Amino acid sequence: MLPQTERYLDLARAGRNAWWRYALGVLVIAFFWLALGYVPYFALVASGLETDPLLQFVAVNFSIFMMLAGLAVAVKCLHGRPVMSLVSPDGRLDFRRIAHGAAVWVLIAALVAALEHALFPGRYYLSFNPDRFFMFFAAVAVLTPIQCAAEELVFRGYALQAFGLLTRRPWAIACASSLAFTLPHLLNPEVYRYGVLIMAANYFAIGMVLATVTLRDGRLELAIGLHAVNNVFLALFANYEGSALMTESVFTAAVLDPVYSLVTLAVGGLLFHWWIFRRVAA
Predict the structure, then answer these.
(1) Which of 12-26, 150-164, 198-212, 239-253 has the lowest mean pLDDT?
(2) Which pTM was predicted?
(3) For residues 68 and 62, what is the distance between their CA atoms, to the nearest angstrom?
C-alpha cells in the first residue's frame, strides 16, 4: 500500500471508531439526507409545482445540504473528529488539486461526447434554449459542485476510511465503497429504462474511478474535481433524455447508451490515472 494511502486511511483511527459508531453514523446521515432533506421536494409536490424543472432541481438538491449536516453530526459528535479529516491528512482543502482534477476530466468527457456524436450521427441534437439555459446555469453552477463534494465526503471520505478499518487491501476498500455508492443510485430513472445490471455497472465503474484516485492520491480533492465537472458537463452541455439530472443543456442525446458509457468510463478512468500520476510512475 502506498504511504499516502496509509496516511489517509489512518485518519479514521484518530477518532472514536467502534463499529457501532459507524453503523449509527450511516443511519444519521441517511436520516438527514433522505428524510429531512426531501421535505422541500414533498412540499413542492403538495403545492402542485413539481412540474417546474428548475424548482424541482433546487428542491431535490436541498437534500445535499442535509446530507452534509448529517455527516457533520456523525463525524464530530459520534467520532470526535474534524470534518476536514475526511479530505486530507493536513486538514486543508487544496483548490488547485480540485481544479486540476476537473480540468483533466472535462477534456476526457468532451472527447467522449464528441466521439459518440461521430460514431452515432444524429444521436445528439441541439437543445439550447437561452431563456431557460441561463436560469439553469446559475443553479447548476452553485448547487452541483456542492452536491458532488457532499457525495465525495460521504462515499470516498467517510466510507473509504471506515472500510479501511476492516481491511488494508486497497481494491477491497475501493470495491466496498463503490458498492455503497451504487446502491442509492439504483433509484435513478435510468435504471428502470435501461436495466438494473448495466446501470449498476455504470455507477460502480464511476465509483471505482473516484475511489482508486482518492486512495492513490491519499486526498479527496481530485475526486471532488472529477465528480463535480462530470456532473456539470452532463447537466449543461451533453445531457440525455430521461436523465436523473433534468436540466437545460446545450446538446441532448435522444437515448443513453449504457454500454458505450460503461466502456468510456473505464477507458476514461485509466486515462485520468495515467495523466494525473504519470510523473509519479516515471
Answers:
(1) 239-253
(2) 0.94
(3) 10
- How many Å apart are CA 122 and CA 125, to the nearest integer? 7
- Alpha-carbon distance 170 to 172, whole Å? 5
The b/e string for 91-117 (b: 16+ C-beta within 10 A; e otherwise) is eeebeebbebbbebbbebbeebbeebe
Q: Are 244 and 256 in contact (CB under 8 A)?
A: no
In 10 A of CB 156, how many CB atoms?
29
Within 8 A by CB and 6+ apart from 21, the residues are: 78, 79
Confirm if 150 and 68 have CB atoms less than 8 A apart. Answer: yes
Say which residues have a Cβ less than 8 Å from residue 194's Cβ, sequence separation at least 6. Answer: 256, 258
Q: What is the pLDDT of residues 112-169, one digit of tens each?
A: 999 999 999 999 999 999 988 988 899 999 999 999 999 999 999 999 999 999 999 9
Interatomic CA distance for residues 197 and 202, integer angstroms: 9
Number of domains in the chain: 1
Of 123, 154, 142, nearest in space to 235 by CA: 142
Residue range 77-112, pLDDT digits in tens: 999 999 999 999 999 999 999 999 999 999 999 999
